[in-house]
Amino acid sequence: MNPNYKKKALRFITAFLVLLSPLLVTSQTITSPDKNFSLQFELKENGRPYYSLTYKDKPVIKSSKLGIEVKDAPSFMDGFTISKSAQLTSDTSWEPVMGEEKTIRNHYNELEVTLAQSQNNNRIIKLRFRLFNDGLGFRYEFPKQADLNYFVIKEEHTEFNLAGNHKIFWIPGDYDTNEYAYTTSKIAEIPALQKKATIEINAQQPISKPSVQTPSMMKSDNGLYINIHEAALINYPAMQLEVDASSFKFKSHLVPDAVGNKGYMQTDTQTPWRTIVVSDKATDILASKLILNLNEPTKYKDVSWIKPVKYIGVWWEYFVAGKSTWAYGKENNVKLGQDFSKLTPNGKHGATNERVIHYIDFAAKNGFDAVLVEGWNVGWEDWIGNWKEEVFDFVTPYPDFDVAKLRDYAASKGVKIIMHHETSGSATNYERRLDRAFQFMKDNNYGAVKTGYVGQIIPRGEHHDGQWMVNHYINVAERAADYKIMVNSHEAVRPTGLHRTYPNWFAQESARGTEFEAMGGLNPDHTTILPFTRLMGGPMDFTPGIFQTDLTYYNTGGNQHVNTTLAKQLAYYVTMYSPLQMAADIPENYDRFPDAFQFIKDVAVDWDNTYVLEAEPGDYVTIARKAKGKNEWFVGSVTDENSRTANLKFDYLPKGKKYIATIYADGKDASWNGKQQSYVVSTMKVDSKTTLKQFMAPGGGFAISIKEVPAK
Amino acid sequence: MNPNYKKKALRFITAFLVLLSPLLVTSQTITSPDKNFSLQFELKENGRPYYSLTYKDKPVIKSSKLGIEVKDAPSFMDGFTISKSAQLTSDTSWEPVMGEEKTIRNHYNELEVTLAQSQNNNRIIKLRFRLFNDGLGFRYEFPKQADLNYFVIKEEHTEFNLAGNHKIFWIPGDYDTNEYAYTTSKIAEIPALQKKATIEINAQQPISKPSVQTPSMMKSDNGLYINIHEAALINYPAMQLEVDASSFKFKSHLVPDAVGNKGYMQTDTQTPWRTIVVSDKATDILASKLILNLNEPTKYKDVSWIKPVKYIGVWWEYFVAGKSTWAYGKENNVKLGQDFSKLTPNGKHGATNERVIHYIDFAAKNGFDAVLVEGWNVGWEDWIGNWKEEVFDFVTPYPDFDVAKLRDYAASKGVKIIMHHETSGSATNYERRLDRAFQFMKDNNYGAVKTGYVGQIIPRGEHHDGQWMVNHYINVAERAADYKIMVNSHEAVRPTGLHRTYPNWFAQESARGTEFEAMGGLNPDHTTILPFTRLMGGPMDFTPGIFQTDLTYYNTGGNQHVNTTLAKQLAYYVTMYSPLQMAADIPENYDRFPDAFQFIKDVAVDWDNTYVLEAEPGDYVTIARKAKGKNEWFVGSVTDENSRTANLKFDYLPKGKKYIATIYADGKDASWNGKQQSYVVSTMKVDSKTTLKQFMAPGGGFAISIKEVPAK
Question: Has the keyword Cell wall biogenesis/degradation been applied to this entry (chains A, B) (predicted)?
């Protein structure tokens, strides 16, 4: 451990500045605190900036171009000299409001390079590189200066010139959706596989060139794990990566706006951080806090109202049961303002008073914090596919959903109802109604909202991942904070660690989640990849916990099953970090498996410590975590389509103390596409020296809860 | 007078239905109540709908195509049969909240034609024609039906096939601005003049084809005055007119959205009304209430808070005095959220406490209802030209504008402050802040807001006159009504009579107004054209009343004068109808001309009756009006660049009573480009038999106030 590091010091900076003579130097090098990484910046032909990165002397990023192309003004591509350069070491730690670790260390060496364009009135930009022990973050900065106030970005030209034809876990580039299944291939195979990988998804806008989205997870032939993403995506479009499959070179591709522009910038400003997390151990990738560290601390003065949430919801039954619907009426043409009580009821509306009370009772009985209710508000009859702006008003319930009655009933049971704001992609409509919607929530005791952006975006021509929408999601989070409301966004741009800055934006979907288990099924390796990709940016509302894995059970004509074992569903509560965790199945199914359900009731959702025990992207992930403020530990392990035996240690437990571990494991005959519900619950005593070989079925997993031996 | 017409009956309908056998009839004809108009509808080749219109047997619109082109679905262009047709006579009257007449008669014969497309599942549309004694209104209607819920309009193909090469008063087609100067030419000359007519204006998007905007005013060689516009523009883009200059044919051209679509439609719905006001007397055009009659009555339950407003404002000095600015700071790069009190004051900020108090005092002393204050809120330093979204927050004052202090001071003086919400074209930013902005207004005793849309629209790619913005303006009016706030919009789409439906949206700019007198000057005939064009749609906040007509007076280096006489500025208060009237000059100038200023103090802004005494577009307009609820009359008359003598009668005065008329007239040596401030105030006794020949100087006018002789 670095001697400068002091656990108690939340803000402790050692600054070490080196000022260089301008114009004379064309290259700069820094190393990571542990010296494993080396970052070189240099100006090459015609004053064009390049960077390269090595890890333990292995090339990670070969010399790669940097640059920003500007519209209707000179670009920041070349013609640069280094006018100043400075280095700095920072070693601090901080405490997230909620998270995988109680305390996060933020230790890096920084290189700040000021580049001047003498031919453009000495206009300057800065490049800031932060080199951590887990990788690199860098960004472009545009200081306020006489000749630079406003500019429009035509494209960012950041290259990631990879050192080889790595194995890559990828989804295709798209401006509107990140809900693709992952493809595992070599980089060179991407162009040939792109079309197949671009499966049909609602409101998609694939990039025609070979491209992938971030977080992009790779493994090199020489054993390096490399993850490329971004941090602190604010007031800028999401970065996708164009793929040059012959030279293994990625290049940034920003999501355009309605008129094809890529970013409206006002100095003093900067791009998000471009992040490259690297290790020779896959577990280090999952343990990395680099992206969080590159985000700004929250400015919220009071965060006491931001709490983890374990919840159930009127939700899964819309996907599989075939017995209930979001919509109340049979009609397919409705308008806000009409009298919805005059619709012809379709007889299958899910969010009825009766059904919600049933969920509230179940939540209260089993210790859940909240009940999500979707389909409570008018407009669902024709909510999708019409690029319609005024679909929902967010304040008018269906006639069979009594807001006041359910508010009071939930309060009497100590349960919160989670509001649902599906926007149908109409962000303009949501923004104009936001204050009224949030005031309605406060008036009715709601503390959290699930937002949704299914469909083509309005403003028409904008994209889910463009600058305007990026700002929209943040605006929603900030306005929600004004009302002390937490936000769980679905179909939003993938996270980039902004839950540090906006801790009430506490979870997102932004990937292919459990709902797809009812729409064709997730690949058995999907959740061994997600922690290396989607979850690098932040918590996912993955909505695990499906016990009735065989969906033909509902006799609704489908021939479908969830592609996991039941035990694997339990493992997700640990392997898929989120301070918001759903028990997604319907209450009736949990009542049928009370022993397995005990794990969901027990498992924590906020943590003091996290131990990534084993991991290989696409194959397996095993994680142990200590519950926040409690002497309880939980372990989750998942495997892909292959059976596996995990080799577990418990050395994270305090030494010399005995604990009782309850193990929720696959049955020997279990399988993701066979006996999914075959599971075994057992207990054993463990201590810090215990080792355990634990079987997982194909597509299976296990979960363990560890508690102190009760005092006799 | 039609014997069916009863003044006291606000709702009196005579319905006369004729149902025709389907499929057999291909043509229908109706006449106006006074039989002067005849409208023929017919299906021609391939079931394509056509209409034609005559007035006193003269052709107005020769047989012209109708049709709606739909995107990605069959169009409503042809293949029609008449499946039903019905006629109806309606004769009612109604009282506007504010207006030129206390009671408005709404008398028309209607033809409703239901057209079916047998090849498209018998999809139907309706065409509804209403023929008044002052012209025609017609629209397309799309009833809810099994095969028609949502559709997207690619273009509307409504033709106006004119009968000759008329003289036309026009501004060029443009998606974003209607602030052009008028060109007077023959229709055939439009293509050659279009480029010259398209003078440079902030945020313009001219249509490349030869085109004009509506209201489009024409005069035929055979003495017909023809005005084409639209009524009730709701949830639809504005209609502009493509010009076929060789055949004198106009065709509708809708303003597109960001992706090129022209209208998102959900049945049951309709287009706005296309209006053709016709007469052989120009005065009848100005007296027409056809457009208002085609708008829906207001749904507001309480309109008691909607009042006419006569106001002054911290405004004109920004344009001419060169001594004050909207902005507080010298900086040209500011962001919401920064501390604006730390800017470097530019020393010329207009909206200071001191200056506003001066205006409030002046308003109180002279009987004005309100003081507009522009430049009160942070963000003006770089508000324009950057396509910046978050320019203003509408709630943060500059450090030298004390909201609470000025609120209390104004209240103590019985004066309201008018809020100013310049959006810089960023409608998304305004909408998301609207509730907070209006709540701030209520909290601080504001009752009216002037909105502004200078600059390129955000959502980017949308236009001022497109469907999205059309809906935005209405949304603002409706949300304002929630807070009992009146709205005066600038740079919005031109009005279409919606002040009947949304009476709190009580005035608009939407044309080249007085501000241009400080930016090159208005043409001397401009205000003899505006009543026939822009004002056909609704009240204009023209901001008249400039007394210091020579702007070199301010010694700010300009060589500029207002292109009217002082007396003409007074005439505008009568000729340019609005329930919102500004005395636009700075208080100091009114103090220098107390005799002329008396007219502005006296003149009414809401009326019982209006008498259009003389009018010829481009030449002159003389109007008399009776003040609402008072035995006071006011006359205004304006001429173009030519001197003129008006021949006035006073036969609208009650018979047998004597009145005192105060006449504010041009001096004999006055001229719009010479001795503008030469005026004569005189009085004379008048009665209903009086006649008066009243001189007007070149570019001049006069105003008369008529009061009862005080009892001795």
Answer: no
Residues B36 and B185 in one domain: yes
Report which of B557, B538, B447 is spatially closest to residue B498, judged by C-alpha positions.
B538
Cβ neighbours of B387 in A, within 8 Å? 152, 264
Q: Is B167 part of a structural domain of the chain?
A: yes
Domain final position from A293, A321, A336: A293
Same-domain status, A235 and A162: yes
In 3D, which of B167, B359, B150 has the Cα closest to residue A386? B150
How many CB atoms are closer than 10 A to CB A658?
12
B338, B477: one domain: yes
Among residues B623, B516, B606, the alpha carbon closest in space to that of B563 is found at B516
Q: pLDDT tens-digit profile of A105-129?
A: 999 999 999 999 999 889 999 999 9
Residues 6+ apart with CB under 8 A from A674: none
- φ, ψ at A113 (rounded to 5°): -115, 125
* Residue B327 and residue B193 share a domain: no
Question: What's the pLDDT tens digit per position in A390-448?
Answer: 999 999 999 999 999 999 999 999 999 999 999 999 999 999 999 999 999 999 999 99
Q: What is the DSSP code string of B242-269?
A: EEETTTTEEEEEEPP-TTS--EEEESSE
Inspect the interface and report whether the beta carbons of A259 and B460 lie closer than 8 Å.
yes
Cβ-Cβ contacts under 8 Å, B266 against chain A: 333, 335, 386, 388
DSSP-assigned letters across all residues of B170-238: E-B-BSS---PPPEEEEGGGHHHHHHHH----TT--B-SSSEE-SSEEEE-TTS-EEEEEEE---SSPP
CA angle B184–B187–B189, rounded 5-degree value: 75
Q: Tell me the HSE value of B5 on the side-chain side, using a 13 A CA sphere.
A: 13
pLDDT (tens digit per residue) in B29-56: 999 999 999 999 999 999 999 999 999 9
Please tell me whether residues B474 and B351 are part of one structural domain.
yes
Residue A203 forms part of a structural domain: yes
User: Which residues in chain A touch residue B461, judged by CB atoms under 8 angstroms apart?
Assistant: 257-259, 459-461
Q: How far is B143 from chain A (nearest CA, A)?
A: 12
Within-domain flag for B130: yes
> Residues of A at the B interface (Cβ-Cβ below 8 Å)?
144, 149-150, 152, 257-259, 261, 264, 266-267, 332-333, 335, 382, 386-389, 428, 431-432, 434-436, 459-462, 468, 471, 475
Instruction: Report if residue A254 sits inside a domain.
Output: yes
Angle between helices B427-443 and A427-443 (to 10 degrees): 30
The predicted-structure confidence for A513-571, as pLDDT tens digits, reads as follows: 999 999 999 999 999 999 999 999 999 999 999 999 999 999 877 778 999 999 999 99
Residue A408, domain extent: 309-510
Test A150 with B460 for CB contact under 8 angstroms: no
A145: which DSSP letter? B
Residue ending a domain, choose from B293, B318, B343: B293
Residue B626 contacts residue B609 (beta carbons within 8 Å): yes
pLDDT of residue B560: 87
Residues facing residue B274 across a β-bridge = B138, B230
Gap from A584 CA to chain B (nearest CA, Å): 33
Do A464 and A330 share a domain, yes or no? yes
- Do B221 and B88 lie in one domain? The reply is yes
Kindly report the CATH number assigned to the domain that includes residue A193. 2.70.98.10
Residue pointed to by tokens 């006569």: B310
C-alpha–C-alpha distance, residues B515 and B542, integer Å: 9
Which CATH number is A460's domain given? 3.20.20.70
List the end-to-end C-alpha distance of chain A, in Å, as a whole number: 40
SS3 A112: strand
CA distance B424 to chain A (A): 15
- What's the number of domains chain B is made of? 2
Are B222 and B321 members of one domain? no
